[in-house]
Amino acid sequence: EGEARSHGIQLFGAHDATLSNISITDVEGGHNPVALENCTDCDTGAVGGQAAGLWLQGCANITATNLQITGIKGGAGHSGATPGHGALAAGIYLLDSTDCSISGSNITSVIGGEGGVSPGFTRSGGNGGVGAAIYMRESTGCTLSGNLLSSATGGAGGASSQFHEPGGAGGLGAGVYLTQSTGCTLTDQAIT
Fold it and tell me: What is the pTM of this model?
């Protein structure tokens, strides 16, 4: 019933480490098929599980170079009377990390999770998830340089089978997505 997260490599609270010449492929967030039963005041159903090729949380002084990351997909939201939203997909996800460096890496085919489908009685479909090659949140002093970032796509919004209810909104696609981060440097990124 909780999120079914998937990560190729995950580091929590790591310091002073180097990752280089690593290939990460085909990581997909879990799907939450369980309906939210006995829920009379829910906004959405079960959300898909997040997916990341490399997940850094609470880390400092991590150097990642020459990573090859491809085929990352967020989990789909639950379909049903209370559809869930699709989950975030990120080639590299940095959360609450300091002075980390990502360079010379190739990140491609990152797709946010699809929103859940609604039968449309009272709700629209679930929204699609964010798809970002590099997603940075609440991090400081990080450097991104010389990376090739391509084919980052937001997830499709879930459909509604009734004509009077809209489908869910499509998710945002971004080469680099920064939120609540300070003192970060981006140079020589090729985003296609």
Answer: 0.88
